[in-house]
């Protein structure tokens, strides 16, 4: 007689709905999101550079678009994404040396990365508005 293969019930992989959201988990997800956002922001930088070498009219149009409140919001968001992604990378760099894995240290590094990116964003844009 042929042997009937029965399906072996294996446990399912853990899913986000099973875990309690932790700051390190949310920061890891945000690190991926900011990495993707940097691609979009870099395209905006390329548009600005291409407009600068194309013609004064094209540069004026792009400068006008970046000068609107929506353009300024996008640029501030790009700046924050850049600093947040950098802070996440620095956090991982610290972890590469085997440091900061304790429960308190992990949370401090995560909150520190948010404070670092926020402070640098405010400093850069504050300096830009003061100089202009």
Automatic annotation (TrEMBL):
Keyword Heme: yes
Cellular localisation: Membrane
One record GO biological process: tricarboxylic acid cycle
Primary localization class, coarse: membrane
Record-listed heme binding positions: 85
GO molecular function, one term: electron transfer activity
Keyword Chaperone: no
Gene Ontology, cellular component aspect: membrane
CDD domains assigned to the protein according to its UniProt record, in alphabetical order: SQR_TypeC_SdhC
Topology with respect to the bilayer: Multi-pass membrane protein
Classification via Pfam families: Sdh_cyt (PF01127)
Family recorded in the similarity comment: Belongs to the cytochrome b560 family.
Function text: Membrane-anchoring subunit of succinate dehydrogenase (SDH).
Protein name, UniProt field: Succinate dehydrogenase cytochrome b556 subunit
Gene: sdhC
């Amino acid at each position: 007689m042929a042997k009937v293969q029965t399906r072996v019930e294996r446990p399912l992989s853990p899913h986000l709905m099973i875990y309690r959201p932790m700051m390190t988990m949310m920061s890891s997800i945000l690190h991926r999101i900011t990495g993707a956002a940097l691609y979009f922001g870099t395209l905006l930088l390329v548009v600005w550079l291409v407009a600068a070498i194309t013609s004064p009219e094209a540069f004026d149009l792009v400068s006008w678009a970046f000068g609107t409140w929506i353009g300024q919001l996008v640029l501030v968001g790009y700046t924050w994404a850049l600093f947040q992604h950098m802070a996440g990378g620095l956090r991982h760099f610290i972890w590469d040396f085997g440091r900061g894995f304790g429960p308190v240290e992990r949370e401090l590094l995560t909150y520190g990365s948010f404070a670092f990116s926020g402070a640098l964003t405010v400093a850069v844009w504050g300096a830009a508005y003061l100089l202009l």
